[in-house]
Amino acid sequence: MKPDPGPEFWRLIEPYTGPVDAVEHTARGYTSDVTAIVRGGAGSVFVKAAHADGPHVSSLEREEAINPYVRSVSPALRWQHHGGGWVALGFDVVDGQHADFTDPADLAVVADLVGAVGKIGLPDIARGWVESRWDRYTDRPDLFAGDALLYTDINPDNILISAGGPVVVDWAWPTRGAAFIDPACLVVQLVAAGHNPADAESWAQRCPAWAEADPTAIDAFADATVAMYRRFEQLDPAPWRTAMTQAVTAWAQHRRR
């Protein structure tokens, strides 16, 4: 859990929240310095904030910029604050549970949600956000290029299922690229959750972008993802990184059969 940012921060956002009655800090949220549900005179709001001179501010500003275009699948941004050494965003609070990637009922919802993300048109503001994270791990980066709006950070922590419907949270790094990449990221997470690669791909098949993709591009992406995770594991051989390397390797081997 992140440390409390101190009274100066709470005074900065009080014009938006009203007098703060309670703060529930969250353990999740790796692209900001503050993540908390704040209950105040103006109601409840989910607050994300970053130091204006810190490493997280660029991703927070990108999340601020993309929010108007993704509200069909994500909580709405109520307000934003820039100043006093902070960038802070206030979102609608979602009363829901994190998706269970081992539960078929949840997986149907998750796959359809990833498909819904894929149907969002690319806004002009995102045209310069070219996806390139996999490029250094392949000799065919052209296969990963495209004009789809990508989310890429698919994992159980970032998908909430509520009575009002499922939502994707934490748009910290939206990019522009090939439409199949988001469903492919879902496959990686499902294999890591214990599904065999064929079953994982069957869920991705619910996404039009996957069903329409060139299999050669998916093969290249799987191989690039293996190389990426092997590199991550070399830099930090934590057990979870080893597990992810094993998962993506199993998927890539499945693609070669």
TrEMBL record:
<protein>
    <recommendedName>
        <fullName>Protein kinase</fullName>
    </recommendedName>
</protein>
<dbReference type="InterPro" id="IPR011009">
    <property type="entry name" value="Kinase-like_dom_sf"/>
</dbReference>
